[in-house]
Amino acid sequence: MHCNLSLKLFSAIIIIVSNAFAQQKPPASQVAGIPVNYDEALTGDYILPNVLTLNNGKQVKSIKTWQKQRRPEILKFYEENQFGKMPPRPTALSFNVFDKGTPVFEGKAIRKQITIYFTEDTSRHKTELLIYLPANKNTPAPLLLVVNFSQNSNATNDPGVKPSLTWTKEGRRVPATTGRAFGKLDVEKFVLAGFGIATLCYTDIEPDALDGILHGIRREYLKNGSTQPAPDEWGAISAWAWEISRAIDYFETDKDIDAKRIAIQGTSRLGKTVLWAGASDPRIAMVIASCSGEGGAAISRRNYGETIKHLTAPTRYPYQFAANYQNFASDYNSYKVDGHMLVSLMAPRPVLLQTGDTDVWSDPKGEFLAAAAAEPVYKLFGKSGPGNDIMPKPGDRSMLNPLGYFMHAGGHGTIPSDWDVYLEFMKKYL
């Protein structure tokens, strides 16, 4: 994972890295000076907002009412109070397909590489998109886009990938020699099953740091000499989700890709990102969110593991969210939404929440409860969710429903066997 940092923030990145990647043990009893609870008996009493109750108190009883009234209400609240409003597709958006289709992996796959430019000045704001498609496939391929912590040249075992760039502490882009991810992408597994697989690095568009806005895409949209977005405008997670939508823009131009069958996957903060991208962009056909935790699928009203207060602490991740999110840091019950409502915004499209049983910081039970509480929306469309309030055991694949939940034995992030679960989920619904 790479970030743009000032020297004074070097110690903060150690915290960011340690929280972004696998943890087999709970963090300390305090984080950023804020207590952390891991006792189920101390989660507190709470009542979840009803996902099918309109702001005016009336009940949603039809798909039309959900789509025309309730869903827009929930989406607007998230836009203005958690992730921040995103700008539309930029008029200067352009694509440079510099690798139009190279046979790789012993002829099993075709590789494409694209640079996506977001402004007329092509030297600054751009994302590198790496795509592998099944060889000898005569019809457009469905595809999984993996939003990655690692740079593209470190994400696969393909020496032909364009060398990637990373950020220095001074805000310059230099060649990346190493990268971190939750394992290399198993390209052959997906192409042999008939799916394409693509990846991009999230920080291509916005550095993951407190001062990332100094160099990221959000800087281009600041108004009237401001140094920060307005309180209801996009944080870094919205910028990363916006990057995903720009990749979808490219997929729609590629005749070898079925742009109506695009799944997206991300882990940890990128689990939050793919949930928000799927909620915001109806073109996304499926979301696979790994360990999205607080601010993602987990129930905020449960005082368990990470909380809004931890996320928005000044030394941690306030930059990832709209500034308005901090208004709810000390009173979760005043928040008009919760994790189940973010999940519900994907309905009726398939979504899989993947967690780890020892990842208590991200609250795997809270994610399961969110799936159960979001199920009434899926039932409105004739789709199923967990079906009961009993959490599955680690490794149990019985809840791979359109609103699915899967928990591996282990900690934060993805493990190699999770990719087999993702592939099974894609075969069922994509």
Short description:
Residues 233-382 form the 4-O-methyl-glucuronoyl methylesterase-like domain. This protein is α/β, with parallel strands linked by helices and 430 residues long.
- The CATH architecture classification is 3-Layer(aba) Sandwich
- What average pLDDT do the residues reach? 92
| Global outline | globular
What CATH calls the topology is Rossmann fold
Taking pLDDT < 50 over at least 5 consecutive residues as the criterion, the unreliable ranges are 1-24
- Structural class, from secondary structure content? alpha/beta
Strand numbers in spatial order across the main sheet:
3-4-5-9-6-10-11-12-13
Structural domain tally: 1
Main sheet, how many strands, which sense, barrel?
Answer: 9 strands, mixed
Percent of sequence in beta strands: 15-25%
Helix percent band = 10-25%
The succession of helices and strands, N to C, reads: HEEHEEEEEEHEHEHEHHEHEH
The CATH homologous superfamily is termed: Alpha/Beta hydrolase fold, catalytic domain
Keywords:
Rossmann fold; Alpha/beta hydrolase family protein; serine esterase; disordered N terminus; alpha/beta; GCE-like_dom; 9 helices; nine-stranded mixed sheet
